[in-house]
Prior knowledge:
The chain is an alpha+beta fold and 135 residues long.
Amino acid sequence: xxxxxxxxxxxxxxxxxxxxxxxxxxxxxxxxxxxxxxxxxxxxxxxxxxxxxxxxxxxxxxxxxxxxxxxxxxxxxxxxxxxxxxxxxxxxxxxxxxxxxxxxxxxxxxxxxxxxxxxxxxxxxxxxxxxxxxx
Length: 135
C-alpha cells in the first residue's frame, strides 16, 4: 500500500530525473507536463530578483539547452528533503545538487527548491515550484 509520502517521494524523484541528459537529449523532460498542473506557477530567484515562468516557459528553454549541446552530462538530484502533508496538499523543501559540462568544462552547483503538491484524481501533481541556486 502506498502512502502519500511514498507517492510524493516518487513524484519528486521523477521531477529531478526529468533533466538528466547523460546520453544526449533528456529523454524524460516531457514528464514535466504530466507532473505539473497546467496552471502552475514556477519562480526562480537569483540576485534578489524573481523570474516567474509558466510551464512551457520553464520546460522548453531547458529542453533546448539540454538537447543542443549547451549543457551535456547534466544531472540534478535531491540531497535531502522535508515534506509536510496536510490532507490533499503537501509542501516539500529540497536541497539539491547538480553537475554538468559546458564549453568543455565541468561544473557543479546546489541550491534549494520548494515544491507545492496537490492531490488530484490521478495522483500528486506539482502546483508550484520555487528555487534558488546557492551563490
